[in-house]
Predict the 3D structure of the following.
Amino acid sequence: MSDELKHTSRRAFLKGGAAVMAGSVAGAATAQSADPLITEVQDWASFTGDGVDATPYGLPIEHEADVIRRNVPWLTADPISSINFTPIHALDGTITPQGCAFERHHSGAIELRKDDYRLMINGLVDRPLVFSYEDLERFPRENRVHFCECAANTGMEWAGAQLNGVQFTHGMIHNMEYSGVPLRALLEEAGLDTAGDLADKWVYVEGADASSNGRSIPMEKALDDCLVAFKANGEALRKEHGYPVRLVVPGWEGNLWVKWLRRIEVMDGPVESREETSKYTDVLADGVARKWTWVMDAKSVITSPSPQSPIKHGNGALVISGLAWSGHGRITRVDVSKDGGMTWETARLGSTQGDSKALTRFYLDTEWNGEDWLLQARAMDETGYVQPTKDQLREVRGENSIYHNNCIQTWHLKSNGEAENVEVS
Ligand SMILES: Nc1nc2c(c(=O)[nH]1)N[C@H]1C(S)=C(S)[C@@H](COP(=O)(O)O)O[C@H]1N2
Ligand SMILES: [Mo]
């Protein structure tokens, strides 16, 4: 192709594209009758608004009162030992506000004052230590964005499409910017020789709540990227997320992210506690339980349109939006299918850089004219791993698993704009 031709066709393409967009955002382009919201002076322009003293600490405006954590009544028999879900169908970008980030407690959220906070490091260290909150603040800090996904996220979907909303199928996840001290620095302060042979060493981490939620973490991970965090999204951790201090274990299942962190013991091996034997293990197709599935594999889901976020505008321009994440690193690509996985289009990632082990936003800017679609998203991460279908997972895991379900999700988008949780095979 000559340079001249290339030029012309690119310009033609751009013009064509613009025409499609203008024509398709129909409501916006053709508002011709008098719209009082444009022609009349409104109350909010005639009187002053609230003063600066009205909201010393702000909450979302009342019109957003629907964007809240919700639970599934039959799953939440006991609210003390239970779970609620992030309204991911109504959020955009990647950061989860603490006020609506899912919670999972084994014995309720406790109230622990900073003054009463203590963190002990003991076991196979030269100098067992107890840190106060102020002590922790005197170590060099880091800021990092990471997702925290409960291993049970999507767990109700193993045997069939069950919960009709992305908040319930995928909402056991949040993504925050944490400020904290690398766990490595505290272990070194306690005299752990991090240059020595630590191949068979573990840390056992415990919370101050009645459940303690004790978990064993191999030393390699403890020294790699774990953070002892005290701020999330710039402000103190909320009580329900572990105030004043929680452990951040990037990319690994949420159960390891101990809240109200009180003790870290360096040990010769794993404790094999309740949370890592009878729970959070994966039953395979042959009935054998697989231990230690720590890393959350690459996963993605379309958040809009979805059952709780139907298409309400008319035909034409449609933004399909969703989230992708991987416990192994960065998301490199997300594909979207409209026909249940037969053909795929590559989505646009909301940020080109993308944090490692963090939520990535994706968009597919497309057009919808009332077609019946089987919408799916499929994530790929920097290791080359591709998110599997439900059938592929079932071949290995059967249908009796609960945890670590990272299968491709399908929404049936109907001509009326509503979407439903379905399965394709
Ligand atoms: N101390 C303590 N830490 C805990 C838990 C708990 O009950 N107690 N629940 C764990 C589980 S199963 C998950 S998924 C995450 C949830 O963190 P969140 O409540 O901030 O969403 O915290 C983990 N840390
Ligand atoms: Mo969890």
Notes: The two ends are 43 Å apart (CA to CA). The pocket of MTE (ligand 1) is lined by residues 101-106, 148, 150, 174, 207, 209, 211, 213, 240-241, 254-255, 257-260 (CB under 6 Å). The longest strand covers residues 173-182.
